[in-house]
Amino acid sequence: xxxxxxxxxxxxxxxxxxxxxxxxxxxxxxxxxxxxxxxxxxxxxxxxxxxxxxxxxxxxxxxxxxxxxxxxxxxxxxxxxxxxxxxxxxxxxxxxxxxxxxxxxxxxxxxxxxxxxxxxxxxxxxxxxxxxxxxxxxxxxxxxxxxxxxxxxxxxxxxxxxxxxxxxxxxxxxxxxxxxxxxxxxxxxxxxxxxxxxxxxxxxxxxxxxxxxxxxxxx
Amino acid sequence: xxxxxxxxxxxxxxxxxxxxxxxxxxxxxxxxxxxxxxxxxxxxxxxxxxxxxxxxxxxxxxxxxxxxxxxxxxxxxxxxxxxxxxxxxxxxxxxxxxxxxxxxxxxxxxxxxxxxxxxxxxxxxxxxxxxxxxxxxxxxxxxxxxxxxxxxxxxxxxxxxxxxxxxxxxxxxxxxxxxxxxxxxxxxxxxxxxxxxxxxxxxxxxxxxxxxxxxxxxxxxxxxxxxxxxxxxxxxxxxxxxxxxxxxxxxxxxxxxxxxxxxxxxxxxxxxxxxxxxxxxxxxxxxxxxxxxxxxxxxxxxxxxxxxxxxxxxxxxxxxxxxxxxxxxxxxxxxxxxxxxxxxxxxxxxxxxxxxxxxxxxxxxxxxxxxxxxxxxxxxxxxxxxxxxxxxxxxxxxxxxxxxxxxxxxxxxxxxxxxx
Lengths: 219, 420
Hints:
The complex is a heterodimer. Chain A is an alpha/beta fold.
């Protein structure tokens, strides 16, 4: 008896369509910004040029995760994380493990792999935001597959921040940040202040595409 | 047979030289179970003479008393100088001349007995038990038993301090870490088994390596929570010794473990994610082996206004509990704050001023005309110390669309980071 006949027999006995081959949808966690949710057990990429709001989005995600009392890890390839602005954005610093890789993307990759293998983190973020595109592109697709496989079937959110997409098909979600408008107030030369920036985050995934807009405000 | 030592000095150590069952009765009194010592030395007086001889050898002045029950021995040692041996059955007669104050009765009871004219052991021992029970209650009866030398009780033995240490003397020096790992595993397994038999774990391991050049290489491993996971501990030692290798071949390995109670934690279905502490320690050790020791930790803010001041705390410092506490509630903003990406070290910049304000900037990887700016924000501090700071900060938007924070200080212009 073939598999198709067996399946048909089971379905007739159970009285409905038996969907046993499709993968369950991953659990989504809030990012702290309405309209953006991140899948657990998947690799999410945040990409964009400098001053596009991607670090603000990362910090917002860290703040939301630490507020859920999850322990997070930030693998900082270029040593560019600012604890002062992160604390002001609501990140609970005692729940954050900061790995400073001193301008070495390869070390960052190894550290992220070790953290994922160790398990127990709610979020592991790898910041390649200031890594030169050539160095980031040198990370092989096999390494990204390894990271994706490591985080699969775990409740950990794996996140990378970079200038361009590096993980390609390994990423379940890509959020592309682009600045729309920088908000200044006052008069130039006398009372001008940097008030914030309006950012469009275009998210692309297999099932849907959306482009939420959020505004980052100056501290 | 029981022996009591009364005097000054390390009486406990002296007691343990003669018996494994030693009671610390008082700071100046030690009682020990002397049963069986007669097989070694013969008569009780010979046992007492052996103890006295040993005490004089280590220059201790003690009163020694041997009796059939501990309380009689204690009273005799406290009441009579030198060596006292109380024959079994003659306790009341032997202790009779001692004053009642040696029994340490309550002040009210002592006053009552004083009023009755009872001042010595023999006076109390001669009283009828029924009359004492009616007039003085249970305490009076207990005092009468002590005075007659009839009180029977068991000693409360002093537990010798638990020490979990072991060492291996090597026949030939070990030069490589791999063969050393086998020795470490042997020590770890032995010590962990000893701890496990007492339902204990360890939170601190000490390793002392005697080197061929007569130097000593010492390392200490502190765990965030007590553990007995020998595989994880061995890996931690391997990573630690790879990071801090001894400078010469090893001829002797000594290891000690600090015994503590294991941590009992109740897991829960709805408890948020957290790494398992020992596993996290191992992961951190592996990462530190790759990127360096002082580059991993939890960031903490420093109580100062100096720009770029922060610290890294060791996640292992929480003694017995994970160092992360409950997250503060209600700090999520409706709109996310601008985050700053810091350039470490700050990039030196050449700035062309226009009307006293930055008009053009050129730094490593940054070049452009200043389109918008806000500032200067003048800050200074620590002028009362030898390391003062002062700077003027500007927020600028360049022609390439990027936002930067630059500052000017006496050493020149620098780009601190970019708003992102």
